[in-house]
């Protein structure tokens, strides 16, 4: 038997066991000056340094991050890797933005070498922001997915991706057919789903760009391949919703289009859901389908204000997504900040504990991966992030004035960004370290 590999990090450790909106202080565990011990890339033990220092074998080097916060890796439940080249494109709302910027950008992904170059840039961004798992759109080209999975596999990342299905209302150069889309998706599933840490998502772009026949074939794929995901967009923008009603006049509402083709379920993830009627919300809850809430994107495209509280009260599974390139940041901390402000505009709120829960365990639950990632329970995959609450001059000044953990987390969520991420660990090993990070005993500052 091969020798067991033990790795350990030391710092202030926080993770969630359930939703703090439902279980308050019982929902999380916080160990000030704790140690997280990993064995062969999985969580072995979490405890106070005081307790664990004596029992960890001497040869195990403990990486010490004094004053830093160690949390589970962030999970982005909706993002488009090909759109990194058009992030921050000016001046349009959804439908015009797709025509003007998105479709021409996605055209280039017929070239697998180009796609691999972009996938590399994208994964560097994700990991340097502390995101360790994502549910990712490719383009209509199967080679865009091969490119993405090749790069994710080389880094041992847990990633979910799929080829876009799109057989109408788009340029010819991005169009597949119900049959070619079915075949190409099936072949990609056979090639990638369940390989290492990779999983496949059947990915109709959204109802307007798929014929009824294509949505029917997507339903076939889902039925024939248990365990694969279904990933699409839903009720993001008012003009889009009106268009769906014209294209599918017999449907009760937008979600009902997908429902009629058997596309709802425990591994179905719908991006946005900004404008949903009560019936659609209830149907999401009843089928255990998930919403990916993408606050940065909703603000950037002027799509609307997401009803987080209503969906949570109904028990709808919900994660956070960046939706880059409509979202303008890869950072889950900035995503928390936008999510908070969207609730404020509706007279509601989002406490920091709930925001950190959503970006970790809540998003794992949305992806039905809660028994694999999302917190530091024994046996889970050891993907985690080391955050430096003093990463900038302003943060340093402000954090000194935070009176408790909740306040420190809120400041991190409002003022933090990629600079706040000192290190990102994948399966117990550091895959990213910010260069200016200092691990000298007692030092919590950068540039020293
Ligand atoms: N709806 C259909 N396609 C897209 C896309 O690429 N981005 C966003 N935000 N919404 C969409
Ligand atoms: Zn999207």
Are there runs of 5+ residues with pLDDT below 50, and where?
437-442
CATH class category name of the largest domain: Alpha Beta
Number of DSSP-assigned strands: 16
Average the pLDDT over all residues and give the rounded result.
96
The CATH topology of the largest domain comes to TIM Barrel
Choose one word for the global shape: globular
The CATH architecture of the largest domain is Alpha-Beta Barrel
Radius of gyration: 21 Å
Instruction: Specify the helix fraction band.
Output: 25-40%
Structural class: alpha/beta
% residues in beta strands: 15-25%
Tell me about the biggest sheet? Answer: 9 strands, parallel
Which ligands, by name, code or SMILES, are bound? guanine, zinc ion
CATH homologous superfamily descriptor of the largest domain: Metal-dependent hydrolases
Please, how many domains? 2
Spatial separation of the terminal alpha carbons: 44 Å
Number of helices: 16
EC number: 3.5.4.3
Keywords: Hydrolase, Metal-binding, Zinc
Pathway: Purine metabolism; guanine degradation; xanthine from guanine: step 1/1
GO molecular function, one term: zinc ion binding
Features:
alpha/beta, Urease, subunit C, domain 1, TIM Barrel, seven-stranded mixed β-sheet, 16 strands, binds guanine, binds zinc ion
Please characterize this protein's 3D structure.
- By secondary structure, the protein is an alpha/beta fold.
- It folds into two domains: 6-73 and 373-433, Roll (Urease, subunit C, domain 1), CATH 2.30.40; 74-330, Metal-dependent hydrolases (TIM Barrel, Alpha-Beta Barrel), CATH 3.20.20.140.
- It is built from 16 helices and 16 strands.
- The protein has helices at residues 20-23, 49-52, 94-107, 112-128, 142-154, 178-192, 212-224, 238-247, 254-260, 278-287, 295-300, 308-313, 332-344, 352-366, 393-399, 405-415; strands at residues 6-16, 28-39, 42-48, 62-72, 74-80, 131-137, 158-162, 164-165, 198-204, 229-234, 268-272, 290-293, 317-320, 384-387, 421-426, 429-433.
- Strands 5, 6, 7, 8, 9, 10, 11, 12 and 13 form a nine-stranded parallel beta sheet that branches. Strands 3-2-1-4-14-15-16 form a seven-stranded mixed beta sheet.
- Helix 5 (142-154) runs parallel beside helix 6 (178-192), helix 6 runs parallel beside helix 7 and helix 13 packs across helix 16.
- The termini are far apart.
- Mean pLDDT is 96; it is low at 437-442.
- Guanine binds at residues 80, 94, 98, 102, 205-206, 233, 236, 297, 323, 326.
């Amino acid at each position: 038997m091969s020798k067991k590999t033990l790795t350990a990090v030391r710092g202030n450790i926080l993770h969630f066991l359930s939703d703090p909106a439902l279980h308050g202080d019982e929902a999380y565990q916080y160990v000030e000056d704790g140690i997280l011990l990993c064995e062969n890339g999985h969580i072995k033990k979490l405890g106070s340094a005081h307790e664990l220092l004596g029992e960890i074998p001497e040869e195990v080097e403990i990486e010490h991050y004094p004053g830093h916060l160690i949390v589970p890796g962030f999970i982005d439940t909706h993002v488009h890797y090909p759109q990194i080249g058009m992030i921050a494109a000016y001046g349009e709302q959804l439908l015009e933005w797709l025509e003007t910027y998105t479709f021409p950008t996605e055209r280039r992904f017929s070239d697998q070498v180009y796609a691999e170059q972009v996938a590399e840039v994208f994964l560097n961004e994700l990991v340097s922001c502390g995101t360790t798992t994502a549910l990712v759109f490719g383009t209509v080209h199967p080679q865009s997915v091969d490119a993405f999975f090749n790069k994710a596999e080389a880094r041992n990342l847990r990633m979910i991706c799929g080829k876009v299905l799109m057989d109408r209302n788009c340029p010819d150069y991005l169009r597949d057919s119900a049959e070619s889309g079915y075949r190409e998706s099936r072949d990609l599933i056979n090639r990638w789903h369940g390989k290492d840490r990779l999983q496949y998502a059947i990915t109709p772009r959204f109802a307007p760009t798929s014929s009824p026949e294509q949505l029917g074939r997507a339903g076939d794929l889902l039925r024939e391949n248990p365990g694969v995901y279904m990933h699409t967009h839903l009720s993001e923008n008012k003009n889009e919703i009106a268009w769906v009603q014209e294209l599918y006049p017999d449907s009760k509402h937008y979600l009902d289009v997908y429902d009629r083709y058997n596309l709802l379920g425990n591994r179905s993830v719908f991006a946005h859901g900004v404008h949903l009627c009560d019936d659609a919300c209830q149907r999401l809850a009843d089928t255990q389908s998930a919403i990916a809430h993408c606050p940065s994107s909703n603000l950037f495209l002027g799509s609307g204000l997401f009803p987080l509280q209503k969906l949570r009260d109904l028990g709808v599974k919900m994660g956070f997504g960046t939706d880059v390139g409509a979202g303008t940041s890869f950072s889950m901390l900035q995503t928390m900040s936008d999510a908070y402000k969207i609730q404020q505009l509706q007279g509601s709120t989002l406490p920091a504990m709930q925001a950190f829960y959503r970006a970790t365990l809540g998003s794992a639950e949305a992806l039905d991966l809660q028994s694999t990632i999302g917190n530091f329970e024994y046996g889970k995959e050891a993907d985690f992030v080391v955050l430096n609450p003093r990463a900038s001059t302003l943060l340093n000044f402000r954090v000194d004035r935070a009176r408790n953990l909740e306040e420190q987390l809120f400041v991190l969520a409002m003022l933090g960004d990629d600079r706040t991420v000192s290190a990102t660990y994948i399966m117990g090993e550091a895959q990213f370290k910010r260069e200016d990070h200092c691990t000298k005993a007692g030092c919590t500052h950068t540039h020293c």
